[in-house]
Write a structure and sequence with these properties.
The complex is a heterodimer of chains A (about 110) and B (about 120). In chain A, about 0% of the residues lie in helices and about 50% in strands. Chain A contains no helices and twelve strands. With about 120 residues, chain B is mostly beta strands. In chain B, about 0% of the residues lie in helices and about 50% in strands. Chain B has strands spanning about 5, 10-15, 20-25, 30-35, 45-50, 55, 65-70, 75-80, 90-95, 105, 110-115. In chain B, the strands form two sheets. In chain B, strands 2, 4, 5, 6, 9, 10 and 11 form a seven-stranded mixed β-sheet that branches. The chains are: A mainly beta (about 110), B mainly beta (about 120). The interface of A and B includes residues 90, 98, 100 and 103 of A.
């Protein structure tokens, strides 16, 4: 079955620390990959997306993710986090063009000032 | 505000009652999606429409759930005979036309349902 898994449920970092959140997806042919963020009290917003081409994708607010096909991974990274990055982060995959997203369980990130 | 809107934002109901939620997508977005999110989990797909056609329904969607998009614009999600397990955040998303694989889904704020 198509699935997405996120390794960490809750990550706590101090400001300026580097961030890496893990995401693995199941094999299913062509896949589009996404990272969404949900800030406290707000709706889901797209951070970045991968469809094809350069496996290193840059998104908003200094986030980037690397698609590693051999590992079925799409990890999210940021070199230096800020308190304002405190949020829940969701990895998602889409296996059919235009179709549904399959989400991971989410990772709650807490950044201490 | 030109984003996806959902109403109501909160709904408290008693077990056994019917509830209906509304989603207004971004103007000219032809695809509309419904998801359900429970605490500590990512959103789970329920169903989606392209214009007024319902193209896919999740097996999670019991017979008590029905969704419509009669004119290809707004959509409603109805839950009949609600159960406590239906308590969740119901999310709506829309995406633009073109059949382009680059299309992203834009999410609304959700309707939080509490079944007592």
């Amino acid at each position: 079955a198509q699935s997405v898994s996120q390794h960490n449920h809750h990550v706590i970092l101090s400001e300026a620390a580097s961030l890496e959140l893990g995401c693995n997806y199941s094999y299913g042919g062509t896949v589009n990959l996404f990272w969404y963020v949900q800030y406290p009290g707000q709706h889901l917003q797209l951070l970045l997306k991968y469809f094809s081409g350069d496996p290193l994708v840059k998104g908003i607010k200094g986030f980037e993710a690397e698609f590693i096909k051999s590992k079925f991974s799409f990890n999210l990274r940021k070199p230096s986090v800020q308190w304002s990055d405190t949020a829940e982060y969701f990895c998602a995959a889409r296996y059919n063009q235009g179709g549904k997203l399959i989400f991971g369980q989410g990772t709650e990130l807490s950044v201490k000032p | 505000d030109t984003g996806v809107s959902q109403n109501p934002r909160h709904k408290i109901t008693k077990r056994g009652q019917n509830v209906t939620f509304r989603c207004d997508p971004i103007s000219e977005h032809n695809r509309l999606y419904w998801y359900r999110q429970t605490l500590g989990q990512g959103p789970e797909f329920l169903t989606y429409f392209q214009n007024e056609a319902q193209l896919e329904k999740s097996r999670l969607l019991s017979d008590r759930f029905s969704a419509e998009r009669p004119k290809g614009s707004f959509s409603t999600l109805e839950i009949q005979r609600t159960e406590q397990g239906d308590s969740a955040m119901y999310l709506c998303a829309s995406s633009p036309p073109g059949g382009h694989s680059y299309n992203e889904q834009f999410f609304g704020p959700g309707t939080r349902l509490t079944v007592l």
